[in-house]
Amino acid sequence: MDRASGSASIQRRTEKSLAIIKKKYGNLMNRNAFLCVAAALLFCGSLLSGSIPKEPPKRGKVTVSPNRSLNWEDFKQVEVIRGTSSINAICLSTCEVEILKVHPFPDHVKLEINAKIHLQKDLSQVNRDFLIRSDEGTKKQVLHHENGHFFIAQIIGYRIVRDVNGYSFDPNQYKNQLNGIIRENFKNWKRLDSQYDAQTTKPRNADAQKRWDEFFTSELLGLRQEIYP
Fold first, then answer.
1. Are strands 125-127 and 89-90 parallel, antiparallel or unpaired?
2. Buried b / exposed e across 46-72, counting CB within 10 Å, b at 16+?
3. Residue 53: cis peptide before it, omega within 30 degrees of 0
4. Are strands 109-119 and 89-90 parallel, antiparallel or unpaired?
5. Taking the CA atoms of the chain, what radius of gyration do you get in angstroms?
6. Which residues pair with 116 in a beta bridge?
7. pLDDT (mean) for 82-101
8. How far apart are CA 30 and CA 190, in angstroms?
9. From the CB of residue 142, how many other CB atoms can be counted at a distance below 10 Å?
10. CA pair distance 218, 228, nearest whole angstrom
11. Residues 6 or more apart from 97 whose CB is under 8 A from it?
12. Share of the chain above pLDDT 90, in %
């Protein structure tokens, strides 16, 4: 029996079952109860006939360390950053992508990955003299700005997971293809970091900082909802 004739046969059996139920129990069952039974039978028939496609589950995750807002304890105090006294602080993170599982399909594979975002404490630095001499408002503003760089790292992690979820990989080339996705997102990471600094600190621009804060919130929320609906 082919798929079409099988589906037709199931539908006929389902309709027959509904007629029997209605005739036998029509006086005992109220309308809502009958509709519930009917819906259940029709749904089972559809499953058996294969007319309801199964959506592949969303996969992948992002882990962030530390999974909180940064404070000055997360930064290494140094005399000079990158050879100049004009830099108050710098925040550097890494994104390591781990393949958790390879899911095989007839003509491709899907990857389940973990994008691990880590703050690099030895490379994230704050000028010691800045901490000593600056007022609390200035230190709060600079720390807030550096947290923005940490948010950008998290955005890149979520984008990598999103892109990997939507990609059908070659079973023999999936590692190279994955590296291509990572490289492309790392280019965007560098671009976003540069734009963020240029628009908010050269010179300091509170309105631009607010716009970036709104972008961080909306982008992270949108990515999480897309990956984990």
1. antiparallel
2. eebbeeeeeeeeebbbbebeeeeebee
3. no
4. unpaired
5. 28
6. 63, 96
7. 96
8. 65
9. 20
10. 15
11. 113, 114, 115, 116, 160, 178, 182
12. 71
Q: Provide the whole-model pTM.
A: 0.76
Residue 170's CB: how many other CB atoms inside 10 A? Answer: 12
CA distance 131 to 76: 11
Which single residue is written with the structure tokens 């965007």?
Answer: 188
Q: Would you state the structure tokens that stand for residue 63, as one six-digit string?
A: 């882990």
DSSP state of 100: E
The residue type found at 165 is: N
| Share of the chain residues as helix, strand and coil, in percent rounded to the nearest 5 | 55, 20, 25
Asked whether the predicted pLDDT for residue 18 surpasses 60, the reply is: no
Reported as half-sphere exposure (CB side, CA atoms, 13 A), residue 223 has a value of 23
Tokens in use for 158?
């979520």
* Residue 98: pLDDT over 50: yes
Query: In this structure, what token pair is assigned to residue 166?
Result: 């939507």
Query: 188 vs 24, which has greater pLDDT?
Result: 188
Helix 3-25, helix 31-49: angle, nearest 10: 160
162: exposed, middle or buried (C-beta count within 10 Å: 0-12, 13-18, 19+)? buried
Q: Which single residue is written with the structure tokens 């709060």?
A: 140
pLDDT in tens, 102-134: 999 999 999 999 999 999 999 999 999 999 999
pLDDT bin (cut points 50, 70, 90) of residue 227 is: very high
